[in-house]
C-alpha cells in the first residue's frame, strides 16, 4: 500500500473492521516479511485484519455476513484466522 494512504486506512481500522487481502492469482498476503510503512506487517500492526487465503471478493462476503450477525472485532478476526 502506498505510504501516503496508510494513515487514512489506519484511522478507518481504528473505528471499524478493515480486512487486508490481495488480488494476486493465488496465495495470501504475507504476515511478517516487510516492515516499511504500508507493508503487510505495518498494516497488521495498525489493526487491519488478515484475510488469510480469501481473495477480496470472498473476504468481503465473509465480512458482510459477520457484520450482519453482529460479530465484534475479535470474532471477525477469529473467523478470518480459520483461513490461514
Q: What's the number of structural domains? A: 1
Distance between the termini: 21 Å
The backbone outline, from C-alpha atoms, is globular
Any low-confidence stretches, pLDDT <50, length ≥5?
A: none
Main sheet: strand order: 1-2
CATH third-level topology: Rossmann fold
Tell me the series of helices and strands, N- to C-terminal: HEHEHH
Average pLDDT, all residues: 88
CATH hierarchy, class: Alpha Beta
| Beta-strand share of residues | under 5%
What level of helicity do the residues show?
40-55%
The counted number of beta strands is: 2
What is the makeup of the main sheet?
Answer: 2 strands, parallel
CATH architecture name: 3-Layer(aba) Sandwich
Notable features of this structure?
84 residues; mainly alpha; Rossmann fold; 4 helices; 2 strands; 49% helix; globular
3D architecture notes:
The protein is mainly alpha-helical and 84 residues long. The chain has a single domain (3-81), classed as Rossmann fold (3-Layer(aba) Sandwich). Helix content is 49%, strand content 5%. The chain has four helices and two strands. The protein has helices spanning 3-15, 40-45, 56-68, 73-81, and strands at 19-20, 49-50. Strands 1-2 form a two-stranded parallel sheet. Helix 2 (40-45) links the parallel strand 1 and strand 2 (49-50). Helix 3 (56-68) packs across helix 4. The two termini are 21 Å apart. The mean pLDDT is 88.
Amino acid at each position: 500500500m502506498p505510504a501516503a494512504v496508510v494513515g487514512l486506512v489506519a484511522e478507518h481500522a481504528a473505528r471499524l473492521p478493515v480486512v487486508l487481502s490481495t488480488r494476486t492469482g493465488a496465495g495470501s498476503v504475507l504476515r511478517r516479511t516487510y516492515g516499511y510503512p504500508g507493508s503487510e506487517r505495518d498494516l497488521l500492526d495498525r489493526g487491519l485484519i488478515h484475510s488469510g487465503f480469501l481473495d477480496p471478493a470472498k473476504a468481503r462476503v465473509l465480512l458482510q455476513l459477520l457484520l450482519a450477525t453482529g460479530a465484534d472485532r475479535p470474532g471477525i478476526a477469529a473467523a478470518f484466522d480459520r483461513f490461514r
